[in-house]
Amino acid sequence: MRIRHLTASLALILAASVTPAAANDFEPQLKAYLEEATWIQDPVVVAAIEAQNAKHAGLGDADIDALDKKWRAEKDAGDGPMITEVLGNDLSKWLMQIKEDSNGLIAEVFVMDNKGLNVGQSDPTSDYWQGDEAKFQQSFGAGPDGVLIDEVEFDDSSESFISQISRTINDASGNPIGAVTIGINVENLGN
């Protein structure tokens, strides 16, 4: 109980020193991380996105909405075949290993296709479609060099301060095919 109280006290102290506007304080380190994270363009990532883009080429808005609703229902229920399938695919397993190998720097990571639908992820996201969110619109939607460095926020589940960074993923010709979002524990930057 005392450790939990100390953790909560530490969180309050850090919250006082890291305001939401403080994302800019970490922007140089977050940009440097993106430059060094060559795994983002790994053939495993690119191939998985290209395969899903082909599979989902004919999806319309109603199809995307139905998939997102199904995912949310499974998430609310605690699990389901759609979540199990995505978390069990090769890309998700690879992303789980990337997260594990980061020694606490990466809180979560997920990859999206050209419609903003999850291709793979280290942890289940709250929804399946990210296409209506800034993380997708300001990365993939901005073209081949699209990047979004989001504000720092306290994450209750990991009890740490996280900034989500998102970036466009391109094919071998430099054409945008999807995006990645990485939740970075800013307290572990530079470790």
Describe it.
It is a single chain. The protein has 191 residues and is α+β, with helices and mostly antiparallel strands. It is 43% helix and 21% strand. A hairpin with a 5-residue loop joins strand 1 (106-112) and strand 2 (118-121). The relative contact order is 0.18.
Chain-wise SSE layout:
Layout: H1 2-17, H2 23-36, H3 43-55, H4 61-77, H5 81-87, H6 90-101, E1 106-112, E2 118-121, H7 134-137, E3 147-155, E4 160-170, E5 176-185
Antiparallel strand pairs: 1-2, 1-5, 3-4, 4-5
List keywords for this structure.
single chain, 191 residues, alpha+beta, 7 helices, 21% strand, globular, disordered N terminus
Q: What strand line-up does the widest sheet have?
A: 2-1-5-4-3
- The coarse silhouette is globular
Q: If helices are DSSP runs of H or I spanning 4 or more residues, what is the number of helices? A: 7
Strand tally, please?
5
Order of helices and strands: HHHHHHEEHEEE
Q: What is the averaged pLDDT score?
A: 88
Fraction in beta strands: 15-25%
Spatial extent as radius of gyration: 17 Å
Low-confidence parts: 1-23
Distance between the termini: 28 Å
Largest sheet: 5 strands, antiparallel
State the helicity in percent bands: 40-55%
Helix and strand composition category: alpha+beta
